[in-house]
Amino acid sequence: MIAVFKKEMKSYFTTVTGYVFLGVALLISGFVLSITTFMSADPSSDTSNYFSIVLIMSMVFLPILTMRSFSDERRTKTDQLLFTSPVSIFSLVFGKFLSALCMFLIYLALSLFNFIPLFAFVAEGAAGPNVAMIIGNFIALVLVGMCFIAIGIFISSLTENMFASAVITVATLFGLLLINGISGLSFLQGDGFAEVIRVVIDWISIFARFDAFVFGYFDIPSLIYYISVTFILLLLTERHFQARRLI
Question: Please, what is the average pLDDT of the chain?
């Protein structure tokens, strides 16, 4: 698993993938933080809009990291080597997952520098940045990012075209966001069966559970949910390759 992790991390920086992801993501996130705080109509230290936009950004940028996870292996037919490797298939899958997650964590760590001006130059008359909210949002982004990466890796294992993998992953994530938005529609705000549907959607939604961390609260059930969803998706990827090996 460690060898796979090192190989994948090296590939991010021997190709343009890693540089494009970090460069573009950091540039846009820095601009977003500026226009949602200092350059907003009512300048403040409120970062809630910033993190909401970063969540949407992650739905587009993380598929860049996962699109070649297994698609490239299938395209070059090197995936056959996976079946004869002494390393277990789950270790291979988990190694690729960890490398993508590590790149995402590097981005989040570097994005912390965006907050230096926010703490140094608090808008006149505005309260200082809410540290608990910022920490809660970063934890939520890591957990949601884990799920996004696991979804991307699973979809990458289904196709040999890495661009198709990226597009399908983005479409899937926005589809999940759309489903989450359905729970807010007026016809689901009543009692009875409509209320049951809304509760079920909120319970299984990746995005609905993000809100639990937004206000600085550490939600243990949501933590367990994100870890469980990530593990299930990685396990499905491993089972997919196990089934292909038997064909």
Answer: 83
